[in-house]
Amino acid sequence: FGFHCGGSLITNYHILTAGHCTDPQSYPSTWVLQKVLLGEFDFSQSTDCDKINDYCSDPPREIGIAKIILHEDYRPRVQGNSHDIAIIKMTEFIEFSNFIKPICLPMFDEINVGYGSGFIVAGFGRTEGKKFSEVMLKAEVDIVERNECFRSYRPQGRVIHSTQICAAKGNSDSW
């Protein structure tokens, strides 16, 4: 039992996540994807509280999964899969709150993805010393020129496709 991937709430019923997080071929055969967890910030605390501003969040919610929709071109065995995306449909309608609400996505014509454009990425991912952070992290990153990105990640065996964005700044990255 555990939570092993992140995702973003995009509607009252849907979460956007990585395809490899939902594909049984991509994780151990003893694992079964059953639920999503909404509203978690700090896994080390039973209740997430801000002592400075004196408030606590609502308890996280575990919700069942009704359906998983993998991108039609997702291929788990293809290195650098550029279609590593999926949508999870939950079994319950989610009422939004101050602590559970959809990610804010800009309209297509508002996105400026030129080199040096800045973004904020967030998640519980790997850090320098750990495979998993107990507290949600965020980092400011910039779009990196594809050839620079390719040179940086090639020694690790990663492939960056022309349809993917590579972003990094200092010691922070997202791929």
Task: Please explain how this structure is put together.
With 175 residues, the protein is mainly beta. Helix content is 5%, strand content 28%. It is built from 1 helix and 11 strands. It has one helix spanning 146-153; strands at residues 7-9, 14-17, 35-38, 49-50, 55-56, 61-70, 86-90, 118-123, 137-143, 167-169, 172-174. The strands form 3 sheets. The protein has a 5-stranded antiparallel β-sheet with strand order 1-2-7-6-3, with no helix packed on it. Strands 8-9-10-11 form a 4-stranded antiparallel β-sheet, with no helix packed on it. Strand 10 (167-169) and strand 11 form a beta hairpin. The longest helix is centred in the C-terminal third of the chain and has 8 residues, at 146-153. The protein starts with 6 loop residues before the first strand and ends with a strand.
Summarize the structure.
The protein is mainly β and 175 residues long.
Please compute the radius of gyration using only Cα atoms: 17 Å
> How far do the termini sit from each other?
26 Å
Order of helices and strands: EEEEEEEEEHEE
Shape: globular
Number of helices: 1
> Could you describe the largest sheet, including whether it forms a barrel?
5 strands, antiparallel
Strand order of the largest sheet: 1-2-7-6-3
- Beta-strand fraction estimate: 25-35%
Low-confidence stretches: none
Give the fraction of residues assigned to helices.
under 10%
Task: Tell me the structural class.
Answer: mainly beta
The overall pLDDT, averaged over residues, is 81
- Find the count of extended strands (DSSP E, 2+ residues): 11
